[in-house]
Amino acid sequence: MVVIVLTACPTGLRGDVSRWLLEIAPGVFVGHVSARVRDRLWERIVDTLKDGRAIMVFSARNEQHLDFRVFRSDWQPVDCDGLQLIRHPSEEDAAFESFAGAPRHGWSNAAKYRRARRYGGKSRG
């Protein structure tokens, strides 16, 4: 089973996707296709979609029996101990990620060894 949700979809792309899947609402396509067709459809969507967003949910052989693909969306697929989840990052997360990407002083291996020598050399007895 495959479910694709498209926003701001060009008519040519809508026609290509509707050849394989049934459009049950504007921009929502549902159907059952092989993995090869599903992957080719996703490639076509990614290549053709200019301003819109795309989300695809499909059957997979994992614990949840489904998997996600996201294109140009705020949502991010996240693997959490073998479970696929969709995460919607907030502005706080973006600020944290920009801070986390900055180099931190004192976390190199040399700094760890220096601290270990400084604090580990004293024995209490």
Automatic annotation (TrEMBL):
Pfam families: Cas_Cas2CT1978 (PF09707)
InterPro entries listed in its UniProt record: CRISPR-assoc_prot_Cas2_sub
Natural source organism: Bifidobacterium choerinum
Name under which the protein is recorded: Type I-E CRISPR-associated endoribonuclease Cas2
Biological classification of the source: Bacteria, Bacillati, Actinomycetota, Actinomycetes, Bifidobacteriales
